[in-house]
Amino acid sequence: MSYEKELHIAQLAVQRATLLTQRVFHEKAKGTLSKDDNSPVTIGDFGAQALIIHAIKSNFPQDEIVGEEEASSLRENKNLSTQIWHLVKSASLEDETSERELGGPIESEEQMLQAIDAGNSAGGAHGRIWALDPIDGTKGFLRGGQYAVCLALISDGSVKVGVLGCPNLPVDDAAPLSADIDDPSGQGRGVLFGAVAGCGATSRPLGRGALQSSQAIRMKSVPDITDATFCESVEAGHSSHGDQAAIAKALGITRESVRMDSQAKYGSIARGAGDLYLRLPVRKDYQEKIWDHAAGEVIVKEAGGEVTDAEGKRLDFSRGRTLKENKGVVAAPRAVHAQVLEVVKSVLGSKE
Ligand SMILES: Nc1ncnc2c1ncn2[C@@H]1O[C@H](COP(=O)(O)O)[C@@H](OP(=O)(O)O)[C@H]1O
Ligand SMILES: [Mg+2]
C-alpha cells in the first residue's frame, strides 16, 4: 500500500491546524484548563483536534482515532466552547482545493464537539487507527517555546504514516540545533515533517495554503560518538536530566544537550540538526502515550534511525492508547543505536 492519499491529507490537516494553534500561540489568553492528571490543555489543543478529526473522518470514515483530548469540559463551559468555535471557523487554508480536500468547514459548534469526541478510540492491534496529539508540548506552547501538531496512521499495530507540524522550528534543515525562538515574528520558522513506512522522510516549509514542495531528510552520520548532540525534554518530570547527564558522560559526550519540548526533538534529529534523543523514565508507573511517539518514530526510522525503548524493545503501538509494554525511548542513527543503548542499559541498570 502506498498511503499517498493518507500522507497528503494528514499533512494538509496538520498544516491547517497550525494556523489555529499559531493564532492562539501569539495571544496572551490561551483559555487554559487543567486536566484530571494536572496537565494543561488550551483552546488551541481543542480547536486543532476538532479540525484534524473532521478532515480524517471526511476522507476515511471507517478509520478510528486515538486523540489526546475530549470535549466533556467544554460541554460544561459554554464560554470556552464558543471561543474555540470562533477559532475553528476562521482557520482555513488559503487554497480552495486544499480546503475541499479536507472536507470543507465544520458546520456547527455541536459538530465541532462531536469531532473532538471522535478521538475516543481505545486503540489496539487491529485495523487502521490514527494517533493525534493536537498540541504536543503544551507546556512549551504556554512558555512560548517549541511545540508540535502530531498525527500518525497506525495499521495493525505498526506506524505507517507520520506527520509533525513544528511552527517554531527553523524552516532550514541545516540551521543549528536550538530550541530558542530568536525572532518572535516567526520569520523563517515553521516546518512540516512527513514520512511513510518504506518510502523515506521529508521536510517542507509549513505554509498557509496548498502544500509547498518537500525535500528528503536524513539523519547525520556519527563517526565519533563523542561529537554527538543530545536532545532531551525541557520538563525534568518527563525525562530524567540526571540520567541523561550520566549517559552522556559514559559515552564521552561533553557538549551540553539541547532541551526542547515536544516531538520537535524527533524531527530535529531526523533532519540531522541533532543526533540522539533519549527519554528516561522518571516515574516507574508512567505509561507513554501513543500520540507522543507514533509520528516521530516513523519519521526517525525513515530518515535512517532506530527507535526502541530503554531496554531495546521496539515501541509497541498495538496495546491501546499507551505504550504499556515499553519504558522510555532511545532514538539514534542506526549505526550507533546499539552502542548508545548499551550505555543506557548500563546506567539505568546500575540504579536498580
Ligand atoms: N511523567 C511523565 N513522563 C513522561 N512523559 C510525560 C509525563 N507526564 C506527561 N508526559 C507527556 O510528555 C509530553 C511532552 O513531552 P516533552 O517533554 O517531550 O515535551 C506531554 O504531552 P502534551 O504536551 O501533549 O500533554 C505528556 O503527554
Ligand atoms: Mg503530547
From TrEMBL:
Swiss-Prot/TrEMBL keywords: Hydrolase, Magnesium, Metal-binding
Cofactor(s) for this UniProt protein: Mg(2+)
Entries under InterPro entries matching the protein: DPNP (IPR006239), Inositol_monoP_metal-BS (IPR020583), Inositol_monoP_superfamily (IPR051090), Inositol_monophosphatase-like (IPR000760), Inositol_monophosphatase_CS (IPR020550)
Enzyme class: hydrolase
Ranges annotated as spanning the membrane: none
Keyword Metal-binding: yes
GO MF entry, a single one: metal ion binding
EC number: 3.1.3.7
Purpose of the protein: Converts adenosine 3'-phosphate 5'-phosphosulfate (PAPS) to adenosine 5'-phosphosulfate (APS) and 3'(2')-phosphoadenosine 5'-phosphate (PAP) to AMP.
Family per similarity comment: Belongs to the inositol monophosphatase superfamily.
Protein name (Swiss-Prot/TrEMBL): 3'(2'),5'-bisphosphate nucleotidase
